[in-house]
Amino acid sequence: MIRKLKIENFKSHRYTDLELSNLTILCGANSSGKSSIIQAMLLLRESFHKYEFNYLDLKTDSVNIGTAKEALYQFSEKDEFAFQINTDNQDLKFNFTIKDSTKTVIPKSSHEIDFELAKKESLFSKGKDCQFISASRLGPQISYPKNDKLDINNQISDKEGKAENAVQFLHKEEKYKVISEICLPEHDTYLSSQVTAWERKISSGVNVIVKDNGTLDYELKYQFNTDKGRTYEFNAFNVGFGLTYALPIIVAILSASKDAILLIENPEAHLHPKGQANLAKLIALAAQAGIQIVIETHSDHIINGILVQCKEFESKKIGIDRNKVKLYYFKEIDEHYSSECEKIEIQEGGKIDKQPKGFFDQIQNDLKIIMGF
What we know:
Layout: E1 2-10, E2 13-19, E3 23-28, H1 34-51, E4 55-57, H2 68-71, E5 80-87, E6 91-97, E7 105-112, H3 115-118, E8 130-133, E9 144-145, H4 150-153, H5 166-172, H6 191-199, E10 206-212, E11 217-226, E12 229-230, E13 234-235, H7 241-254, E14 261-265, H8 273-288, E15 292-296, H9 300-316, E16 325-333, E17 338-344, H10 362-371
Parallel strand pairs: 3-15, 3-16, 8-14, 14-15
Antiparallel strand pairs: 1-2, 1-5, 4-7, 5-6, 6-7, 9-11, 10-11, 11-12, 11-13, 16-17
Helix pairs in contact: 5-7, 6-7, 7-8, 8-9
């Protein structure tokens, strides 16, 4: 598990030092540096797979930043990116020196790495132990083309975290045994059953159906339970958008093994507040079970859902231990045009120690105007 991440001179991060835990939550205003945290980890992952850490490629399938000039912190005093990842097994230090700011591939200058140990880290896994689901994931499609690479890399996302392989992945892994801590009762523990069970926390009575159309593609359909029996099978276009948008996240979590790492942007997208709260519960249960999850969110319902799970754990031991959650609020410092993150402590009862200005306070600001105080 990753315990600490340091970033220097990358995008808006002049110098950022984060402690990570089972669940790490990144929130803050737009363009405050949240996505760059996830991008940094993905770039290092790609560096391992493509170049054995000898180069940093700024234009990859998962992250497309562009040239070194676009990736380097604007007011940096040196032409170098520096990253450090501390895990349970080792400390990895990476330095890449820019020799030409128009290039997209940057050579290393000095590293401190045990390469054989690095192979064992989930972030650098070549299998399904690392998944990235971005904010720009696919919505409902008429069909989902088959991707033979899935048999090799087991990645739900092929490009930019779009989760274009989620339906095929679900079909391929339908008999995967989900870890018991995140299984809902009254359903068997197979991935296909548990995906339907958790989707029902978003839309009551739904059944998730994947159809294999032979050599070409898959179809995603939904069917609903009623007092008169099941409905027809509906194409994903004809049901709530949120069901399909949440599907890759639910699949990624339920198919993860303990010690896997998941990087997820905006899990709340297109979901009703109750659906967001239930998705937050799944995230919390998975993180407590040992799946490392890093999420970026703009939703107070996700934050509050996690805080509820922290309180639940105190009395019922179901949810997540607050000591396994790291919550950060990002903001931009105008003086340096750099990102600054503030750690928010979760206290007993699911309360937070402070509410910085801009930290999900818009409802309070609006109510002051509406209520006239």
